Amino acid sequence: MKQHRIERINQFILEEVTKIVRDKVSHPEVSPWLSITKVETSKDLSISKIYVSVMEKEMEKKEATIKALNHSSGYIHFELRKILKTKRVPQLKFFLDLTQDNVDRINQLLNKLHQENNPDE
Questions:
Q1: Domain ranges of the chain
Q2: Whole-prediction pTM
Q3: What's the Cα-to-Cα distance from 26 to each of 23, 33, 100, 111, rounded to whole Å?
Q4: In CATH, 3-117 is 3.30.200.100
Q5: What is the DSSP letter of 87?
Q6: What is the residue-level pLDDT of the chain in tens, covering all 121 positions?
Q7: Cα separation, 88 vs 72, whole angstroms
Q8: Distance of CA 8 to CAs 15, 40, 54, 71, 93, Å?
């Protein structure tokens, strides 16, 4: 399968799963402060890895959101199947994306280092 087609499918899944989670998933553990950051679909369309950034302070809330999304993945797959016009609709697996947490941590360290090296500022 051509890479361009997979990229289009990834973008479509990202947009549609975002809408489904926002509008139709009502699991109490799913944080309203989430963003789907990336989708990686296998070439045979058997699985899509969906990376989610959760804007919560506590890691427990972030992990609970991912667990709840994986618990709701059958329903999300059912809804996606209604709108994705492919022969096969991939199974959905959700993963926590900690990229923003890492960026924030690096910025804090850089700011601290800057303050230590420039105490007059």
A1: 3-117
A2: 0.82
A3: 8, 14, 25, 39
A4: no
A5: S
A6: 577 999 999 999 999 999 999 999 999 999 999 999 999 999 999 999 999 999 888 999 999 999 999 999 999 999 999 998 888 999 999 999 987 766 677 777 777 777 778 877 6
A7: 19
A8: 11, 11, 24, 26, 18
